[in-house]
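Work Package 4 report. The design task specified in the project plan requires that, given a folded chain encoded as structure tokens, an amino acid be chosen for each position. We show below one input record used in the internal validation round.
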């Protein structure tokens, strides 16, 4: 048994986590280190990985991976939760619409109360 779980010969796959490394390496498991295939996608996770400030451009630090079929081509994920000037403009516009609607409501109320 592995940590209280019943393990039999009929199981084809087991999901295990190496907690403590022994004296000898297990061939094909602990003798070589494989890099992570994908990097973080969210802007704040990229900032945390590379210890960046808010002012640093996250787009320059995205983990890119090379395409094996196309020469001199690499792929990068679309960064989520990225604050762009367009996003800030959209936010300002939405707030202006709400403000204008509130002022129109107040004027309508004043007209009604006359």
């Amino acid at each position: 048994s592995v940590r209280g779980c019943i393990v039999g010969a009929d199981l084809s796959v087991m999901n295990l986590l190496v907690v403590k490394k022994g004296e000898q390496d297990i061939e094909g498991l602990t003798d070589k280190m494989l890099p992570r295939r994908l990097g973080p996608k969210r802007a704040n996770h990229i900032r945390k990985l590379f210890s960046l400030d808010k002012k640093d451009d996250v787009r320059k630090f995205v983990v890119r991976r090379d395409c094996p079929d196309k020469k001199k081509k690499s792929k990068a994920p679309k960064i989520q939760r990225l604050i762009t000037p367009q996003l800030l403009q959209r936010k300002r516009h939405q707030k202006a619409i709400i403000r204008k609607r509130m002022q129109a409501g107040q004027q309508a109320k004043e007209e009604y109360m006359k």
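Residues 27 and 110 are 82 Å apart (CA to CA). Validation will be extended to a larger panel in the next phase.
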